[in-house]
Every structure is written in C-alpha cells, then in structure tokens.
C-alpha cells in the first residue's frame, strides 16, 4: 500500500485537504446562518420602523385635524363672547333708562 514516502505524503495531503474542506464547509454554514439571522433582524427592524412611521403620520393627521377644530371652537367662543357682551351692554342700557325714569317719576312725585 505505501511503497514510498511520496505515497505517505499524498495520503497526508489528501487527509489535510479533507479537513480543510470540512472546516470551510462548517465555516460557510455558520456564516450563512449568521447572515440569515441578520436578515430576519433587519426585516423586523424595518417593519417596526414602518409601524412607527405610520403611527407618527396618524398623530400628525390627528393633531392637524384637532387644530382645525380648535381654531373653529376659539372663533365660535369669540363670537359668543361678543354676543354676550352686546347683550350685557343692552341690559345695562335698559337698566340705566329705567333708573332714569324712576328718578324722574320720584322728582315729579316730590314736586307735586
């Protein structure tokens, strides 16, 4: 079987090439496994970022809509306050007129 030392050298080299091949296959398997795990992580992060982006857009839309409603409410409250001021002013003027009439009537009654 082993006639010369050259045959022994070829046998050892073949054995070494076999182990190097096994090592590289094992290394390639784990590298592919790591890359696959990283791909899953990246997809997960991307989906979470998209959800956060949608949530931010939803908040932005809600805030824009609520500011529009808030503007209308402030405007309505302002008009209501103006209306109430005018009514109060009218009532005050009516009260002043009634007080003046009562004073005139009391002066007339005193003079008679």
Instruction: Calculate Rg over CA atoms.
Output: 47 Å
Q: What shape does the CA trace take?
A: rod-shaped
Instruction: Report how far the terminal alpha carbons are from each other.
Output: 158 Å
| Mean pLDDT score | 89
Show unreliable segments: none
Helix/strand-derived category reads: mainly alpha
Beta-strand residue percentage: under 5%
Report the biggest beta sheet as strand number plus sense, adding barrel if it closes.
Answer: none
Verbal overview:
The chain has one helix at about 5-110. It has about 110 residues and is mainly α. The chain is rod-shaped and about 160 Å long. The termini are far apart. The relative contact order is 0.03. The model has no long low-confidence stretch (mean pLDDT about 90).
Short description:
With 112 residues, the protein is mostly helical. The chain has one helix spanning 5-111.
SSE layout:
Layout: H1 5-111
Keywords:
112 residues, mainly alpha, rod-shaped
């Amino acid at each position: 079987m082993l006639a010369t030392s050259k045959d022994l050298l070829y046998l050892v080299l073949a054995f070494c090439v076999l182990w190097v091949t096994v090592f590289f296959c094992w290394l390639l398997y784990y590298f592919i496994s790591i890359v696959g795990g990283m791909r899953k992580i990246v997809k997960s992060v991307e989906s979470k970022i998209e959800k956060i982006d949608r949530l931010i857009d939803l908040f932005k839309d809600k805030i824009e809509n609520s500011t529009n409603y808030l503007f209308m409410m402030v405007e309505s409250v302002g008009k209501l306050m103006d209306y109430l001021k005018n009514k109060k002013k009218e009532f005050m003027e009516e009260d002043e007129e009634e007080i003046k009439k009562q004073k005139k009537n009391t002066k007339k009654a005193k003079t008679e």
